Amino acid sequence: MEHTEHTELFPQLDIEKELRQSYLDYSLSVIVGRAIPDARDGLKPVHRRILFAQSILNNTYRNAHKKCARIVGDVIGKYHPHGDSSVYDALVRMAQDFNMRDPLEDGQGNFGSIDGDSAAAMRYTEVRMSRLAGEFLADIEKETVDFRDNYDGSEQEPTVLPTKIPNLLVNGSSGIAVGMATNIPPHNLGELCDALLLLINDPDTGVDELMQFVKGPDFPTGGQVYAGQGLVDAYRTGRGIVKMRGRMEVKERGKNTQSIVITEIPYAVNKSGLVEKIAALVNDRRIEGVSDLKDLSDRNGIRIEVELKRGTIPDLVINALYKYTPMESSFGINMLAVLNNRPVLFNLKSALTCFLDHRREVIIRRSRFDLNKAEARAHIVEGLLKALDIIDEIVALIKASETPQIAKQGLADTFGFTEIQAQSILDMRLQRLTGLEHDKLQEEFDELMKLIAYLKSVLEDSEVLRGVMRDEMVMVKENYATERKTEVVGEALSGIDIEDLIPDEEVVITLSRRGYIKRTTLGNYQQQKRGGKGIAGLNTGDDDFVQDFITTTNHQYLCLFTNKGRMYQLKVYQVPEGSRTAKGMHIANLLPLEKEEFVANVLTVREFAENQHFFFATRSGMVKKSSAALYEKCRKSGLIALSIKDDDELIAVHQVEESDTIVLATKMGMAIRFSCQDVRSMGRGASGVKGISLRKNDEVVSCLPIKDDDNTTEIMSISELGYGKRTCVELYRRQNRGGIGIINFKVSPKTGNVIGSIPVTDEDSLILLTSTNKIIRLGVKEISSYGRATMGIRLVSLDDNATVVGYDTVPTGKGDEDGADTE
Predict the structure, then answer these.
(1) Which one of 311, 397, 403, 768 is separated from 731 by 20 to 30 angstroms, measured CA to CA?
(2) CATH number for the domain formed by residue range(s) 529-542+609-811
(3) Nearest to residue 247, comparing CAs of 224, 268, 227, 226?
(4) Under a CB-based contact definition with an 8 Å cutoff, are residues 474 and 197 in contact?
(5) DSSP at 431
(6) Strand partners, 765
(7) 3.30.1360.40, 3.30.470.30, 3.30.310.50, 3.40.50.150: which CATH number matches 247-326?
(8) What class does CATH assign to 43-162?
(9) d(CA 793, CA 722)
């Protein structure tokens, strides 16, 4: 018995079912009442209540600002039973021009900044509705929307605002509910009005036709947005991802110095956070070539200056900024909104159609309200006009009546006036008896009849109703539309290839013994006659000299091999550009070199083919051949190219084929030629095999790959005192590797030791560099061909105590200019 009574008082529940229903009720409450905007006016409840509270306080753009604390107090006291901070945060955001495409509030005071600074306390700031926000509440007093009780039943609030603005798309919205979220980007009001006009005229218009007018999102911070497949998907299905980019431009700062100026940033990016991110990347050397970073932004706009080091390619830094910083961001579009208390995913057309349906209902309800009001007034005016025609009889009846009630009844019974007309006659002033007042009443009656006819046509004729909607859209566009801020550009690339931005022109890479490297356009070096003095070249210090002087093109890989047998890899365009006389940048700023490690040889490669090989030669005569494919993937920290003994060092690396022959030349004028096939292919870590047996104090200075069937190539040998000669390759007979070789150059005190040998043709030009930093360029045709055991001719006139320290060849005519250029 006791158990039965207990069960009746506390019935058993299915806990799973109860939790499911309770959680569903909670989630729907969050979706409808807090996080997701209404599809009709594009507002969440808190924003709607703020605007309505301001309209009740008459806090419109025509009137003075009011303290935000006053607005917040009315909102939470009458309509929004939540914390004041949530209401104030919403109010602040509605006034921020970097968050709202068309702000709904006109703020006065500190309303925060794009740097993430918070607004001042609500007791300090003042606000009023913007002019645009006035259109959200137009005609609300004409029963255009439904009202409901507030949270305690003491006030009435609108369920939706009768807005003339398609705010869901104009200002967008973002919010996270339970199990779903919305993220709608802002758009340009003028474009939306054009699309709405098209949809009014032709309701069957498709999304693709609407996209001819709605180009894409229009963010308040400007920048660029890419109109790719993600945008098409978003407008067709309601979901898609678009790429946003800030705007940068290159400014000349001085002679050979430039700055990258950031003037616009992507939407919702914190500016101070962006500056900190750039600074961190520069400090970590993930962005190279930046000398200074300044944030010069003010109330007139954003201006972040990224000052570049001399010779830095701006496009490289711009590409890095897009790649590593929020200067390129994604916006995930999710056009979810509430319709009929249900979350619905809208595409472009359905969102615009929903707004037009809302406007149609508002216009019909407004017209019905105005019609009832006009008919009521016309009924009264009609009675007054009739009364004026028989005013004497009416006055007599009124005078004879004992009470106003008897007079009203007499007017109804005697002259046929309605109760309302009779009361208005009794309330009529004596001045209405004048002829002028009679004419005014007749004019008012005629206008009322025209208005009634028009309002009936709006309610009865759909074409007239569409005309009203068109006129409203035209009015909104003329009064409120502004120019687009965000540029819509073509499809975004999955990854920008910086090589597309840099011409693949011929350049000279210069590397000094102390590690200063630079890139110079080949045209800076002009061809001269044999024996010329040359032009000023690299400005190194007294204790430095040029080690490598290589002609290549911007798009090739630069493989830098160190004395310790490691390889580092760069693209040629990543080497900072410098003038002909500039010292350049130290290689340690580009590569993570270890202590006492320096770049000993540089090789340029366009691709690492499987059938190609790298051939290594060391100063002690060791050689090694490895597949080029082993060196393609190089970490930033470098990789082991070959193993070298402590008393040896690398002197040359070449890209060879199996059919090539190799010529090793020594400083004391010896040389050996053997087949590349005599050296088997080895792994990266191998130390190699002996290529030549050296005499005492001799060492290898050059390693030359020669094509087996090449009859046009000759070997140009150059001595340190400026002598040189070219010798036919056929004079170098093939031998087995490991021998002492044959005579290559007749070394004497007059010529000095051989500094190197290089393969040349008649079509080449020879570039020589001296220890006094002079550069001379001359045609190979000007140099006579001699036998092996000769010293050749003087190639360059040297200054006192000067020597030749560098050399290279380029095809004749590349970078030439008319005339000779001397120092």
Answers:
(1) 768
(2) 2.120.10.90
(3) 224
(4) yes
(5) G
(6) 779, 810
(7) 3.30.1360.40
(8) alpha beta
(9) 8
pTM comes to: 0.67
pLDDT in tens, 101-113: 999 999 999 999 9
**Average pLDDT for 237-262:** 91
For the stretch 269-291, pLDDT in tens is 999 999 999 999 999 888 888 99
Q: Which long-range contacts (CB under 8 A, 24 or more apart) does 636-641 make?
A: 636/592, 637/592, 638/562, 638/566, 638/567, 638/568, 638/591, 638/592, 639/566, 639/567, 639/684, 640/565, 640/566, 640/567, 640/684, 640/685, 641/561, 641/565, 641/566, 641/567, 641/614, 641/616, 641/684
How far apart CA 203 and CA 538 sit, in angstroms, is 72
d(CA 190, CA 214): 9
> Quick one: average pLDDT of 541-553?
67
17 in helix, strand or coil? helix
Q: Are 674 and 734 in contact (CB under 8 A)?
A: yes
Write down the catalytic residue from 26, 124, 322, 557.
124
How far, in Å, CA of 14 to CA of 696, rounded? 99
Spatial distance between the Cα atoms of 172 and 318, rounded to a whole number of angstroms: 30
Which residue ranges make up each domain of the chain?
43-162, 247-326, 363-480, 529-542+609-811
Q: Look-up: residue for tokens 């009442």? A: 33
Sign of CA dihedral 539, 541, 546, 552: negative
Question: Cβ-count burial of 102 within 10 angstroms (0-12 exposed, 13-18 middle, 19+ buried)?
Answer: buried
Spatial separation of the C-alpha atoms in residues 230 and 139, rounded to whole Å: 39
Q: Which residue has the tokens 């400026």?
A: 722
In whole angstroms, give the CA distance from residue 61 to residue 66: 11
Among candidates 280, 814, 195, 743, which has minimal Cα distance to 526? 814
Catalytic-residue membership of 525: no
- The 3-class SS string of 550-583 reads EEEECCCEEEEEECCCEEEEEEHHHCCECCCCCC
